[in-house]
Amino acid sequence: MKFRKLQLKDEKDLLQLLPQLTNRQIILNAKELIRNKNCHSIVIEHEKKVIGFGQIYVCPTPVEGYFGIIENIIVDKSFRKMGLGKKIMEKLIEIGKKNGAKKIDLTSNPSRIEARNLYESLGFQLRNTGIFRLKL
After folding, report:
1. What is the pLDDT of residues 20-64, one digit of tens each?
2. With contact defined as beta carbons under 8 Å apart, do 3 and 43 qualify?
């Protein structure tokens, strides 16, 4: 298995993988993800097929300096329970550090118990922030 940066050729595989993460419509533009300098997307490739994905956005703020936001961590259901989710997270944390992040946030649905246990095992702490969202 190989960990690497997202490439344009991965878009087809991701369109098959991402529905395992969410029931929402997948709006994927791999070219835009690659082009965005604040977005760092990685994949796990196995036998020329993408079986895992994750991304971190690293952005500056005027108060706290750089921070990261991890999004869309997914490992194909056929490859779970092999520690690949943890490896994706560790690589994203390292990318955040290399890009100056002083903290990293992520959100996780309360029903995703195993994922939340993984995040806690890596040192993430549940915060009571009352996240607000405006759909545009």
Report:
1. 988 888 888 999 999 999 999 999 999 999 999 999 999 999 988
2. yes
CATH architecture of 2-121: 3-Layer(aba) Sandwich (3.40)
- Contact between 118 and 83 under an 8 Å Cβ cutoff? The reply is no
The count of C-alpha atoms lying within 13 angstroms of the C-alpha of 110, restricted to the half-sphere facing its C-beta, is 2
Q: Which of 68, 82, 72 is nearest to 109 (CA)?
A: 72
User: pTM of this prediction?
Assistant: 0.91
Q: DSSP characters for 49-98? A: EEEEEEEEEEEEETTTEEEEEEEEEEE-GGG-SSSHHHHHHHHHHHHHHH
Q: How far is CA 5 from CA 33, 46, 47, in A?
A: 11, 14, 16
Of 92, 89, 75, the residue nearest 118 (C-alpha):
89
